[in-house]
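Anyone up for a design puzzle?
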């Protein structure tokens, strides 16, 4: 049975996290999600999980971890990973990727699809850590704006996945405040979002249905076997692998290679690199790699 706060105990007295408890939680999180908490993240873990321990009226980290391990629904594991995942994103983040899409990826794919036996206007893109939705919505806007071939009746779909159910719920709503949309070019903002009064005053911007219908949002843990076959034409996995160790990155990169069509691209974050890893991708530009053979 999980230990609870005694009557009269103050919820502001946060429990201590011992080194042994920290190592147990960090090892478990690494195995479950690939996230590496081994390098000085003890205070982050303590602060984020202490709130949950207080909500559940538990006494310490040991009892909370027992609760996670014995929860047959798996809901508490999801909450644990939600609490420890870092989600930072924005519209048009790392714009060099979207410039590359406009100037290289979309024209290349269009030329390939137009050839006899090329498959017609089919495009498949995976946003592998979509967070609160800004990345996949940006991808959709870029393609819809720059490629009538894929936009007008084409078979264009985006799969958007994330470990966190919390941010996925935000993404599915497709509603953003003025500060969130400041990086969207005015023409794109006008074309693809609707300005509406917010409940608490001010305005909110809502993604239009023609953009939303392109995207499928799903919870997915990158450490799990791929539940979809592809092939994908482009995979975005940006600013995620910085939380993984080299062995985990190598396995994930191999999964991406297997899922991509020959000629497809992998985009990673500006602070990431495949340098030093054994992989089958061809380097194209900083943060951009291409699958050139099977």
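Challenge accepted. My sequence:
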């Amino acid at each position: 049975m999980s230990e609870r706060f005694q009557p009269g105990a103050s919820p502001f007295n946060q429990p201590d996290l011992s080194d042994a408890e920290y190592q147990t939680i960090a090892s478990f999180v690494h195995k479950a999600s690939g996230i590496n908490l081994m390098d000085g993240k003890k205070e982050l873990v303590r602060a984020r999980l202490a709130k949950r321990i207080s909500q559940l009226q538990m006494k310490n980290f040991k009892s909370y971890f027992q609760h996670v391990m014995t929860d047959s629904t798996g809901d508490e594991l999801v909450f644990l990973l939600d609490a420890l995942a870092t989600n930072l994103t924005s519209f048009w983040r790392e714009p060099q990727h979207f410039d590359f899409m406009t100037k290289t990826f979309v024209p290349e794919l269009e030329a390939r699809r137009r050839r006899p036996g090329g498959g017609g206007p089919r495009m498949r893109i995976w946003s592998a850590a979509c967070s609160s939705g800004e990345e996949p919505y940006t991808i959709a806007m870029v393609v819809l704006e720059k490629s009538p071939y894929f936009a007008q009746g084409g078979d264009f779909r985006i799969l958007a996945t994330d470990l966190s159910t919390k941010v996925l719920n935000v993404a599915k709503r497709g509603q953003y405040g003025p500060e969130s949309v400041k990086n969207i070019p005015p023409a794109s903002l006008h074309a693809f979002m609707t300005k509406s009064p917010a409940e608490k005053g001010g305005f909110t911007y809502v993604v239009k249905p023609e953009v939303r219908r392109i995207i499928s949002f799903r919870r997915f843990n990158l450490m799990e076997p791929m539940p979809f076959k592809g092939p994908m034409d482009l995979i975005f996995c940006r600013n995620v692998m910085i939380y993984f160790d080299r062995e985990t990155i190598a396995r994930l990169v191999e999964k991406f290679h297997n899922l991509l069509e020959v000629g497809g691209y992998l985009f990673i974050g500006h602070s990431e690199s495949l340098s030093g890893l054994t992989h089958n991708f061809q380097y194209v530009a900083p943060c951009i790699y291409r699958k050139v053979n099977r």
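A detail worth pointing out: The longest strand covers residues 260-268.
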